[in-house]
Amino acid sequence: MNNGATFLIQTLFDLYIMAVILRIWMQLARVDYYNPFSQFIVKITGPVLNPLRRLFPSIGRFDIAAAFLALALMALKFFILVHMQLGQFPYSIIDLLIASVRNVLTLTLQLMFWILIIRAILSWFSQGRNPIEFVFAQLTEPMLAPIRRIIPPIGGLDLSVLVLIIIVQFVRISIS
What we know:
The chain crosses the membrane at residues 7-26, 64-83, 104-125, 150-171. By secondary structure, this protein is an all-alpha fold. The chain has one domain (3-175). It is built from six helices and no strands.
């Protein structure tokens, strides 16, 4: 089995699934639609999501079509990788579905982790004028605000990001 091909398949699928997850998360957080980063995510996910929306309408702000797409892409990724490795697919559809849900959740938590890390690093250098930083703030602020109510900034040092990173990593490790 070619390790290069495996790496390429995993990377391409994971990057696109992350874009779909970001699309769901941005809709739930009501991120500024006209932000250039938001527009990028909309443009790369739109061609696949728009036809799916005819089959799977949204429920409130939750995009069922995007959730289905993320799960379907994860299942396809597993199918391709296992088939490449074994020459067959020895697992049931239920096993594939469970693995897909679990791995989409893990990928979502990894995405949250990296967005929190990038947001923390950008806060040291940036003045908040970067469009990506603005989107990351809109995505993470609903989760950070409750933590700040419990643990207020100490001497100007905001520990809420660190606490959320620890929680995200704990949950990620627990479901892995």
